[in-house]
């Protein structure tokens, strides 16, 4: 099994000391920083947007892994890439058809970022298959998008297993990321199922043993 990538979600960080929390996860060995954008329309919560990303994107050396849970990804994709997104992941459910999904993937690549496609727990994994040769990443949600601190939905594990088998069989270069309710126990389950990247928010932030916690996600 390859070394798993850890992407701490700053949605659970201390916004009074954001830079301090970002440095803490960077020093603890995180390779990516997960940035959850919520518009209060596609998901029932509002988080933060381009101005915050612009401010923090260059304050660390991790990959800026931006997850946009918004209704109009085509309109806003360029702005998030200009603000510093290295990977921009949008939702399948926010697109009107497969044509639009391909258009957004192309748009993200045209602006120089890597393209990720995310699916909610209730969306069948087969929906992402047509895009795999164009995508850099598939983000499988293990919670309903909108909030940190929720419990891992074990029913999504079969989606990871299916996608890992499909990617390996067809020798496709596309990473699998999982997001929601990741802790020491669920990280093991997700890694055994075949993920490459673990997003973790409330398991890491708000604790004084971030390094120990992060190391436990890798064993
Ligand atoms: C939920 C977000 C997740 C969330 C993860 O909509 O996409 O990234 O912040 O937080 P935890 O790890 O606490 O579930
Ligand atoms: Zn996320």
Could you give the topology of this structure?
Layout: E1 5-8, H1 18-27, E2 32-38, H2 50-56, E3 63-69, H3 73-82, E4 87-91, H4 98-110, E5 114-119, E6 137-141, H5 157-169, E7 175-179, H6 184-193, E8 197-200, H7 210-218
Parallel strand pairs: 1-8, 2-3, 3-4, 4-5, 5-6, 6-7, 7-8
Helix pairs in contact: 3-4, 6-7
The structure holds D-xylitol-5-phosphate and zinc ion.
Description:
The protein has about 220 residues and is an alpha/beta fold. It is about 35% helix and about 20% strand. The chain has seven helices and eight strands. It has helices at about 20-25, 50-55, 75-80, 100-110, 155-170, 185-195, 210-219; strands at about 5-10, 30-40, 65-70, 85-90, 115-120, 135-140, 175-180, 195-200. It has an eight-stranded parallel sheet with strand order 1-8-7-6-5-4-3-2. α5 (about 155-170) links the parallel β6 and β7 (about 175-180). It is globular. The mean pLDDT is about 100. Bound molecules: D-xylitol-5-phosphate (DX5) and zinc ion. The site of zinc ion (ZN) has 6 residues, from β2. Zinc ion binds near residues 34 and 199.
Keywords:
219 residues, single chain, globular, binds zinc ion, binds D-xylitol-5-phosphate, 7 helices, 33% helix
């Amino acid at each position: 099994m390859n070394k798993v990538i850890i992407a701490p979600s700053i949605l659970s960080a201390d916004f009074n000391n954001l830079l301090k929390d970002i440095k803490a996860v960077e020093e603890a060995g995180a390779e990516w920083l997960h940035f959850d954008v919520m518009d209060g329309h596609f998901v029932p919560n509002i988080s933060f947007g381009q101005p915050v990303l612009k401010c923090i994107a260059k304050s660390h050396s991790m990959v800026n892994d931006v997850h946009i849970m918004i209704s109009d990804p085509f309109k806003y994709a360029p702005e998030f890439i200009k603000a510093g997104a290295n990977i921009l992941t949008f939702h399948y459910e926010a697109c009107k058809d497969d044509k639009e999904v391909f258009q957004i993937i192309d748009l993200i690549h045209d602006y120089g970022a890597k393209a990720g496609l995310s699916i909610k727990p209730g969306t069948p994994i087969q929906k992402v298959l047509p895009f795999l040769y164009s995508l850099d990443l598939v983000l499988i949600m293990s919670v309903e998008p909108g909030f940190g601190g929720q419990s891992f939905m074990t029913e999504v594990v079969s989606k990871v297993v299916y996608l890992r088998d499909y990617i390996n069989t067809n020798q496709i270069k596309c990473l699998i990321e999982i997001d929601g309710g990741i802790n020491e126990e669920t990280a093991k389950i997700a890694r055994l199922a075949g993920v490459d990247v673990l997003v973790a928010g409330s398991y890491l932030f708000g604790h004084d043993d971030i390094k120990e916690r992060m190391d436990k996600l890798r064993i």
